[in-house]
Amino acid sequence: MKQLRFHYYMEIRFDIPVHDHHFTLRCLPKEDDSQINEELNYEVRPYCDLCRGTDAFGNEMLYGSCREPHKLFLADVYGIVQTGCGERISETASEYIYRYQTLQTAPGVQIRGFYKELEQDFLRETDAPEQKDVTGMAVFFMHRLNKRFQYRSGITLIDTTAEEAFEKGMGVCQDYAHIFLSLLRLARIPCRYVSGMMTGEGFSHAWVEIRTPEGWIGLDPTNDRIVGDDYIRIAKGRDYKDCLINRGIFKGCVGTAFQEQMIRVEVKEIGEKTDGND
Q1: pLDDT tens figures, 128-141
Q2: What is the separation of C-alpha 3 from the centre of its chain, rounded to a whole number of angstroms?
Q3: What predicted TM-score, i.e. pTM, was given to this entire model?
Q4: Does domain 96-243 correspond to CATH entry 3.10.620.30?
Protein backbone atom coordinates (compact mmCIF):
# COMPACT_ATOMS: atom_id res chain seq x y z
CA MET A 1 0.00 0.00 0.00
CA LYS A 2 1.01 3.59 -0.59
CA GLN A 3 -0.08 7.01 0.55
CA LEU A 4 -0.26 9.33 -2.44
CA ARG A 5 -0.61 13.07 -2.14
CA PHE A 6 -2.35 14.45 -5.22
CA HIS A 7 -3.25 17.82 -6.66
CA TYR A 8 -5.68 18.02 -9.57
CA TYR A 9 -6.18 21.48 -11.04
CA MET A 10 -8.38 22.40 -14.00
CA GLU A 11 -9.17 25.81 -15.37
CA ILE A 12 -11.21 27.05 -18.32
CA ARG A 13 -10.64 30.53 -19.70
CA PHE A 14 -13.23 32.28 -21.87
CA ASP A 15 -12.45 35.10 -24.26
CA ILE A 16 -15.64 36.91 -23.23
CA PRO A 17 -17.65 36.77 -19.99
CA VAL A 18 -20.15 33.90 -19.77
CA HIS A 19 -23.01 33.42 -17.32
CA ASP A 20 -25.58 30.83 -16.27
CA HIS A 21 -22.79 28.28 -16.39
CA HIS A 22 -24.13 24.83 -15.44
CA PHE A 23 -21.47 22.12 -14.99
CA THR A 24 -20.76 18.56 -13.92
CA LEU A 25 -17.23 17.63 -12.83
CA ARG A 26 -15.70 14.17 -12.38
CA CYS A 27 -12.41 14.88 -10.65
CA LEU A 28 -12.79 13.31 -7.19
CA PRO A 29 -11.10 9.98 -6.37
CA LYS A 30 -13.69 7.27 -5.82
CA GLU A 31 -13.36 5.12 -2.71
CA ASP A 32 -13.52 1.37 -3.35
CA ASP A 33 -11.69 -1.86 -2.54
CA SER A 34 -8.43 -0.53 -3.97
CA GLN A 35 -8.22 3.00 -2.53
CA ILE A 36 -9.36 5.12 0.42
CA ASN A 37 -9.51 8.91 0.64
CA GLU A 38 -7.63 9.86 3.78
CA GLU A 39 -7.95 13.56 3.00
CA LEU A 40 -10.03 15.26 0.32
CA ASN A 41 -10.40 18.99 -0.35
CA TYR A 42 -11.95 20.77 -3.29
CA GLU A 43 -12.80 24.26 -4.43
CA VAL A 44 -14.70 25.53 -7.46
CA ARG A 45 -14.53 29.18 -8.52
CA PRO A 46 -16.22 31.52 -9.09
CA TYR A 47 -18.63 31.06 -6.21
CA CYS A 48 -21.52 28.79 -7.21
CA ASP A 49 -24.27 26.56 -5.88
CA LEU A 50 -22.17 23.40 -5.49
CA CYS A 51 -23.51 19.90 -4.85
CA ARG A 52 -21.92 16.46 -4.64
CA GLY A 53 -23.36 13.16 -5.83
CA THR A 54 -22.76 10.06 -7.94
CA ASP A 55 -23.67 9.18 -11.52
CA ALA A 56 -25.10 5.96 -12.97
CA PHE A 57 -21.63 4.34 -12.95
CA GLY A 58 -20.97 5.19 -9.31
CA ASN A 59 -18.54 7.99 -10.12
CA GLU A 60 -18.23 10.90 -7.71
CA MET A 61 -19.51 14.19 -9.15
CA LEU A 62 -19.44 17.86 -8.30
CA TYR A 63 -22.21 19.78 -10.01
CA GLY A 64 -23.74 23.22 -9.81
CA SER A 65 -24.19 26.53 -11.57
CA CYS A 66 -22.43 29.90 -11.69
CA ARG A 67 -24.96 32.64 -12.43
CA GLU A 68 -22.68 35.68 -12.47
CA PRO A 69 -20.55 36.65 -15.53
CA HIS A 70 -17.01 35.24 -15.45
CA LYS A 71 -14.06 34.64 -17.77
CA LEU A 72 -12.29 32.06 -15.59
CA PHE A 73 -13.73 28.82 -14.21
CA LEU A 74 -11.57 26.50 -12.13
CA ALA A 75 -11.70 23.35 -10.04
CA ASP A 76 -8.96 22.69 -7.51
CA VAL A 77 -8.91 19.24 -5.88
CA TYR A 78 -6.20 17.94 -3.56
CA GLY A 79 -5.70 15.45 -0.78
CA ILE A 80 -4.20 12.11 0.22
CA VAL A 81 -5.29 8.71 -1.08
CA GLN A 82 -4.22 5.33 0.28
CA THR A 83 -3.85 2.95 -2.65
CA GLY A 84 -3.14 -0.74 -3.06
CA CYS A 85 -5.75 -1.71 -0.47
CA GLY A 86 -6.78 -4.73 -2.57
CA GLU A 87 -5.56 -6.51 -5.68
CA ARG A 88 -9.06 -6.87 -7.07
CA ILE A 89 -12.10 -4.59 -7.03
CA SER A 90 -15.35 -6.35 -6.14
CA GLU A 91 -18.61 -4.66 -7.10
CA THR A 92 -22.25 -5.65 -7.09
CA ALA A 93 -23.06 -3.54 -10.17
CA SER A 94 -23.88 -5.42 -13.36
CA GLU A 95 -20.98 -6.12 -15.72
CA TYR A 96 -23.17 -6.60 -18.79
CA ILE A 97 -23.08 -2.96 -19.90
CA TYR A 98 -19.31 -3.37 -20.28
CA ARG A 99 -19.58 -6.30 -22.69
CA TYR A 100 -20.72 -4.29 -25.69
CA GLN A 101 -18.93 -1.97 -28.09
CA THR A 102 -19.72 1.75 -28.19
CA LEU A 103 -19.39 4.26 -31.00
CA GLN A 104 -15.89 5.04 -29.71
CA THR A 105 -14.71 1.41 -29.52
CA ALA A 106 -16.58 -0.18 -32.44
CA PRO A 107 -14.01 -2.21 -34.44
CA GLY A 108 -13.49 -1.75 -38.17
CA VAL A 109 -11.52 -3.80 -40.68
CA GLN A 110 -8.13 -2.91 -39.17
CA ILE A 111 -8.92 -3.77 -35.55
CA ARG A 112 -10.81 -6.94 -36.52
CA GLY A 113 -7.81 -8.08 -38.52
CA PHE A 114 -5.48 -7.38 -35.61
CA TYR A 115 -7.81 -9.25 -33.25
CA LYS A 116 -7.78 -12.38 -35.43
CA GLU A 117 -4.00 -12.26 -35.45
CA LEU A 118 -3.85 -11.93 -31.67
CA GLU A 119 -6.42 -14.65 -31.05
CA GLN A 120 -4.57 -17.16 -33.23
CA ASP A 121 -1.22 -16.36 -31.64
CA PHE A 122 -2.62 -16.61 -28.13
CA LEU A 123 -4.28 -19.97 -28.76
CA ARG A 124 -1.07 -21.28 -30.32
CA GLU A 125 1.08 -20.17 -27.39
CA THR A 126 -1.19 -21.07 -24.46
CA ASP A 127 -0.86 -24.44 -22.71
CA ALA A 128 -4.61 -25.03 -22.31
CA PRO A 129 -6.50 -23.35 -25.19
CA GLU A 130 -9.74 -25.04 -24.14
CA GLN A 131 -9.65 -23.09 -20.86
CA LYS A 132 -10.04 -19.39 -21.37
CA ASP A 133 -7.61 -17.53 -19.13
CA VAL A 134 -9.21 -14.08 -19.09
CA THR A 135 -6.32 -12.29 -17.42
CA GLY A 136 -3.70 -14.12 -19.47
CA MET A 137 -5.44 -13.27 -22.74
CA ALA A 138 -5.92 -9.63 -21.77
CA VAL A 139 -2.26 -9.24 -20.75
CA PHE A 140 -1.17 -10.92 -24.00
CA PHE A 141 -3.32 -8.48 -26.00
CA MET A 142 -1.92 -5.55 -24.00
CA HIS A 143 1.71 -6.51 -24.71
CA ARG A 144 1.06 -6.83 -28.43
CA LEU A 145 -0.92 -3.59 -28.65
CA ASN A 146 1.85 -1.72 -26.88
CA LYS A 147 4.35 -2.95 -29.48
CA ARG A 148 2.07 -2.13 -32.43
CA PHE A 149 0.83 1.31 -31.33
CA GLN A 150 3.02 4.36 -30.58
CA TYR A 151 2.46 7.14 -28.08
CA ARG A 152 2.39 10.57 -29.69
CA SER A 153 0.31 13.61 -28.78
CA GLY A 154 -1.26 15.95 -31.32
CA ILE A 155 -2.19 13.15 -33.74
CA THR A 156 -5.69 12.33 -32.50
CA LEU A 157 -8.59 14.36 -31.10
CA ILE A 158 -10.82 13.73 -28.10
CA ASP A 159 -13.54 12.25 -30.34
CA THR A 160 -11.20 10.05 -32.43
CA THR A 161 -12.52 6.49 -32.48
CA ALA A 162 -10.53 3.35 -31.75
CA GLU A 163 -10.52 2.33 -35.42
CA GLU A 164 -9.40 5.78 -36.57
CA ALA A 165 -6.58 5.88 -34.03
CA PHE A 166 -5.44 2.34 -34.88
CA GLU A 167 -5.26 3.27 -38.56
CA LYS A 168 -2.99 6.20 -37.66
CA GLY A 169 -0.81 3.89 -35.60
CA MET A 170 -0.23 6.44 -32.85
CA GLY A 171 -2.08 8.45 -30.25
CA VAL A 172 -2.40 9.09 -26.51
CA CYS A 173 -3.59 7.09 -23.50
CA GLN A 174 -7.26 7.57 -24.42
CA ASP A 175 -6.60 5.94 -27.79
CA TYR A 176 -4.67 3.03 -26.25
CA ALA A 177 -7.60 2.45 -23.89
CA HIS A 178 -10.25 2.59 -26.63
CA ILE A 179 -8.37 0.19 -28.92
CA PHE A 180 -7.75 -2.17 -26.01
CA LEU A 181 -11.44 -2.09 -25.08
CA SER A 182 -12.37 -2.87 -28.67
CA LEU A 183 -10.08 -5.92 -28.74
CA LEU A 184 -11.24 -7.22 -25.36
CA ARG A 185 -14.91 -6.89 -26.26
CA LEU A 186 -14.28 -8.84 -29.46
CA ALA A 187 -12.97 -11.55 -27.13
CA ARG A 188 -16.17 -11.20 -25.04
CA ILE A 189 -14.25 -10.03 -21.98
CA PRO A 190 -16.21 -7.46 -19.91
CA CYS A 191 -14.05 -4.35 -19.66
CA ARG A 192 -14.34 -0.66 -18.89
CA TYR A 193 -12.58 2.65 -19.39
CA VAL A 194 -10.96 4.23 -16.34
CA SER A 195 -9.73 7.80 -15.92
CA GLY A 196 -7.41 8.88 -13.14
CA MET A 197 -3.90 9.88 -12.19
CA MET A 198 -0.56 8.20 -11.63
CA THR A 199 2.81 9.13 -10.21
CA GLY A 200 5.40 10.49 -12.60
CA GLU A 201 2.97 12.27 -14.95
CA GLY A 202 1.83 15.87 -14.97
CA PHE A 203 -1.56 15.21 -16.49
CA SER A 204 -4.53 12.90 -16.21
CA HIS A 205 -4.29 9.30 -17.42
CA ALA A 206 -6.57 6.57 -18.81
CA TRP A 207 -6.43 2.79 -18.65
CA VAL A 208 -8.71 -0.26 -18.69
CA GLU A 209 -10.18 -2.66 -16.15
CA ILE A 210 -11.24 -6.21 -17.00
CA ARG A 211 -13.71 -8.38 -15.15
CA THR A 212 -12.20 -11.62 -13.82
CA PRO A 213 -13.82 -14.31 -11.63
CA GLU A 214 -12.07 -12.71 -8.63
CA GLY A 215 -13.08 -9.11 -9.45
CA TRP A 216 -11.91 -6.19 -11.57
CA ILE A 217 -8.23 -5.77 -12.38
CA GLY A 218 -6.59 -2.75 -14.03
CA LEU A 219 -4.35 -2.93 -17.11
CA ASP A 220 -2.48 0.05 -18.55
CA PRO A 221 -1.80 -0.51 -22.28
CA THR A 222 0.00 2.82 -22.63
CA ASN A 223 2.70 1.73 -20.17
CA ASP A 224 2.24 -2.02 -20.78
CA ARG A 225 1.74 -2.90 -17.13
CA ILE A 226 -0.77 -4.13 -14.58
CA VAL A 227 -2.17 -1.21 -12.61
CA GLY A 228 -0.67 -1.01 -9.14
CA ASP A 229 -0.60 1.32 -6.16
CA ASP A 230 0.94 4.19 -8.15
CA TYR A 231 -2.48 4.87 -9.68
CA ILE A 232 -5.48 6.83 -8.38
CA ARG A 233 -8.86 5.99 -9.91
CA ILE A 234 -11.33 8.80 -10.56
CA ALA A 235 -14.05 7.58 -12.94
CA LYS A 236 -15.10 4.51 -14.88
CA GLY A 237 -17.48 3.89 -17.78
CA ARG A 238 -17.98 2.31 -21.19
CA ASP A 239 -15.59 4.77 -22.85
CA TYR A 240 -14.16 8.24 -22.28
CA LYS A 241 -17.55 9.95 -22.69
CA ASP A 242 -18.80 8.36 -19.46
CA CYS A 243 -15.73 9.71 -17.65
CA LEU A 244 -15.59 13.29 -18.95
CA ILE A 245 -13.89 15.53 -16.43
CA ASN A 246 -16.02 18.52 -17.31
CA ARG A 247 -19.41 18.70 -18.98
CA GLY A 248 -21.57 21.78 -19.04
CA ILE A 249 -23.41 24.55 -20.83
CA PHE A 250 -23.26 28.32 -20.50
CA LYS A 251 -24.50 31.53 -22.06
CA GLY A 252 -22.20 34.06 -23.68
CA CYS A 253 -22.77 37.77 -23.23
CA VAL A 254 -21.95 38.52 -26.85
CA GLY A 255 -21.93 35.91 -29.59
CA THR A 256 -20.23 32.57 -28.90
CA ALA A 257 -17.48 32.31 -26.28
CA PHE A 258 -14.17 30.68 -27.16
CA GLN A 259 -12.80 28.54 -24.33
CA GLU A 260 -9.38 27.12 -23.51
CA GLN A 261 -8.96 24.32 -20.97
CA MET A 262 -5.83 23.57 -18.96
CA ILE A 263 -5.31 20.62 -16.61
CA ARG A 264 -2.37 20.18 -14.25
CA VAL A 265 -1.88 17.03 -12.17
CA GLU A 266 0.67 16.11 -9.55
CA VAL A 267 0.84 12.80 -7.69
CA LYS A 268 3.64 12.02 -5.22
CA GLU A 269 4.12 9.30 -2.66
CA ILE A 270 4.18 10.63 0.90
CA GLY A 271 7.81 11.07 1.87
CA GLU A 272 8.99 12.15 -1.58
CA LYS A 273 10.48 15.60 -2.01
CA THR A 274 8.02 18.05 -3.56
CA ASP A 275 8.45 21.25 -5.48
CA GLY A 276 6.99 23.29 -2.60
CA ASN A 277 3.55 23.81 -4.16
CA ASP A 278 1.71 21.34 -1.93
Answers
A1: 555 568 999 999 99
A2: 20
A3: 0.91
A4: yes
